[in-house]
What does this fold into?
Amino acid sequence: MPFVLTGTIVPNAVPTAHGNAQRRHDEYVQAIRHYLDFGPVYFIENSGYPVLGEPFFVDTPGLTTFAYPRSASTARGKGYQEFEMLDDFVRDRLREDAFVKVTGRYVYKNIGALTAWMRKRLPESGIVIDMKRRERQAIVGLFAVSKAFYVRHLQGAYRDMDDSARFWAEYVLYRRIRQAGTAVFLQPAPVLRAVTASMGMAVDMRDDGIRQGLRTLKRRLFWLVGMRELLF
It folds into this structure.
């Protein structure tokens, strides 16, 4: 099951606090190298940056890169553009029956354990993704999904996304996945290191022993009582 990393090296959306293209480029490279330790990677990029002119993106074993044009609807925000591109990739380029989607600069430190859980649970659910019931959000930074589930339930969802109207990807996908009724959340609790594009803020969910253990225990308890969404 490959990783699909979505990328926008030169930001297409406004506002974007973390907008230095060279720094973003380097963070994408770092993330790709991380995931290549766990499996093949597709990197799909939609800013018009000449990725296919760089040896790293075209010659690295295990990495396949696709360059997509800048969206005609950048004003609708990052989610719209990301899933517009992902739709095209799944329809025209994806050869495998399932994939792990990662927002491109996000480095999940415990991805090995997470993908083991994804492979185990994906056949029964079609999608493994964190769903927050109270916020009515699907956490779109990391999820595993079968191609069949994606085509049936998520294809075209980007058309409902518009950041300016607060129709964020997290809410749109939550409704779609909830209607399908088969989602499974991630285990163990993800350990994420990233810099958010919109806020320019570092996110570091550290694997600090006790706190990480409690976060994972909460998920196991939810699972044991039959829950498939997170309450907090």
About this structure: Helices lie at 21-36, 55-59, 78-92, 111-125, 147-154, 169-180, 210-224. The beta strands are 3-7, 41-45, 63-67, 98-103, 107-108, 127-132, 137-146, 192-195, 202-204.
